Amino acid sequence: MTVVLCGVGADTGNVEPVPRVDDAGRFEYVPIPEKGETTESATYGSLPRRHAPGPLANDLDAVRPGSDGDWVTDSTAIANQPVHRDPNLDALTYGEHRPTYVDRLAALDPGDVVAFYGGFRGPDTDHKHRHMFGYFTVADDPVTLDPELCIDAKADVLAEHPANAHAKRFAGHGDLYYHDPTFTDRLETVVVVPGREPGGVLERTIRLSDERVGPNYYMADDAADALAPARGGERGTHLGGFKPAVRCDVDRETFLAFVDDYRDR
Predict the structure, then answer these.
(1) Which terminus of the chain has a lower count of CB atoms within 10 Å, N or C?
(2) Residue/partner pairs of 243-246 with CB below 8 Å, 24 or more apart
(3) Under a CB-based contact definition with an 8 Å cutoff, are residues 180 and 36 in contact?
(4) Contacts of 254 (CB under 8 A, 6+ apart)
């Protein structure tokens, strides 16, 4: 059995300010803004904060939906901005198009685990240490959608995963796309991972990183000892800069024990 750690969520390229973790480990999961057309009804103005009154929009000064586009600073426009809720930890579904992510996720089996980490600023630092904030158990074999697959075949597959952010993107745009919807020559394989319990958003984050070298973060020794990550090097397991997908050679029970140990601290 296997656990794959996936780096997701809003970061410096798409929201200001970047989400923070407080001194109790509490946080808000802020999805990235959707880049183009979608049938997603959730917006920053409709998704509630977990630890304060009001919506996620109240925490945001600016969002940037496109990879190279302008920042949106108008509060009404921010509130109305649809999100790319990926993972959707209410429905326990996740989709990906980044090639190295696709490879690792497509190899998962039912009963394996997908866990999610992001870059969060701390209560007393602007360093974006890597914090795990949710996970789910893989329910069925992940589904890969090749870009050469015909539209009808893609529609049939995605109809089985209506809560997935890529299914909603497909329904709104008319096809899957890699980066921005205008880059129609950059279609890539998309993998959809269906989930089941145990899983969901954690009550507080688990900090995975310890050492920071320039813009790069590395997994702490205690986390590496517990999770047995496959990626390693002179400084240990790299967690970004650009956040990698990290395969961990532990079974679900060992992973859940790691989560429970942090929950009880």
Answers:
(1) C
(2) 243/6, 243/7, 243/8, 243/117, 243/118, 243/119, 243/130, 244/7, 244/100, 245/4, 245/5, 245/6, 245/7, 245/98, 245/100, 245/101, 245/104, 245/105, 246/4, 246/5, 246/219
(3) yes
(4) 226
Tokens of 71: 């920042």
Omega before 55 within 30 of 0, i.e. cis: no
Domain count, the chain: 1
Query: For residue 19, is it within any domain?
Result: no
Q: At what angle do helices 151-158 and 165-173 cross, to 10 degrees?
A: 140
CA distances from 28 to 1, 55, 139 (A): 30, 10, 26
Q: How many residues does the chain have?
A: 265
Q: Give pLDDT tens digits for 26-73.
A: 999 999 999 888 999 999 999 999 999 999 999 999 999 977 778 999
Burial zone of 117 (CB within 10 Å; 0-12 exposed, 13-18 middle, 19+ buried): buried
Alpha helices in 140-183 (DSSP H): 151-158, 165-173
Q: Which residues lie below 8 Å from residue 236, measured CB to CB, with a gap of 6+? A: 211, 218, 219, 221, 224
pTM of structure:
0.94
| Residue 128 phi, psi dihedral angles, 5° rounding | -95, 70
Assigned domain for 59 exists? no
pLDDT of residue 90: 96
SS3 annotation, 189-230 = CEEEEEEEEEEEEEEEEEECEEEEECCEEEECHHHHHHHCEC
Range of the domain at 199: 3-10+85-263
